[in-house]
Amino acid sequence: MKPNVYKAGKISKTDWRHAMVPGLRDHLWSDGPIDCKTFNYCGPFFVSCDHGCNHGPNLHGAVSDPEFTGCGTNPITRAEVIANNLASLESADLVFVYITATDCHGTMGEIGWAIAKQKRVVMCFAPDIDPSDFWMWAHQVHAVHTSVRPCCLHGLLSDAIAELTARSSSSFGSNKA
User: Which strands sit side by side in the sheet containing 94-99, from one edge to the other?
Assistant: First the structure.
């Protein structure tokens, strides 16, 4: 079986995940993982629309802006976002993180949870992010990459999957680090 990969990081309207996960824009949590040839993308999933009404501060790409009523999407509650993210993290064999902002508080929670559950975690930092601000997590994960442009993420993820696959002689789904 292919590994399940959870891609942590701030969610935005023009999210970096879209370039790496085919069909992500229209995929819902209830649709299950997305087959990405060498891995299964297990989350997070978020509501995407062309005007970005679910991509404001603290909306997490899924919680609707209460002041905006023109979107036809089906937003979910914050409690559902938390439950869905934790279920996806639980199923993950690899947590691949891309830090693009220093206020990624939810991402820090996901990393801490993944470390506590002994998941394999790879952290990548955008070029304008100082990794020393994240020293506590960076010293506990399996790999850290700095000054990473979005175009380089695919190669780093491929390398992490290859290393994970080489380390595992059994099928995936056991969620061992």
Answer: 34-35, 40-43, 4-8, 94-99, 120-125, 143-145
117 — alpha (psi -120 to 50), left (phi > 0) or beta?
alpha
Q: Domain residue spans in the chain?
A: 4-167
Q: Where are the alpha helices (DSSP H) in 32-174?
A: 78-91, 105-116, 135-138, 153-167
pLDDT of res. 77? 73
Class of 4-167 per CATH?
alpha beta
Yes or no: say if 91 and 42 are a contact pair by the CB < 8 Å rule.
yes
Question: Across residues 43-58, what is the average pLDDT?
Answer: 61
DSSP state of 19: G
> Quick one: tokens of 120?
């394999």
Q: If you average pLDDT over residues 145-152, what whole number do you get?
A: 97
Query: Whole-prediction pTM value?
Result: 0.83
The pLDDT value given to residue 72: 52
CA distance 156 to 24: 20
Whether the CB-CB separation of 90 and 145 falls below 8 Å is answered with: no
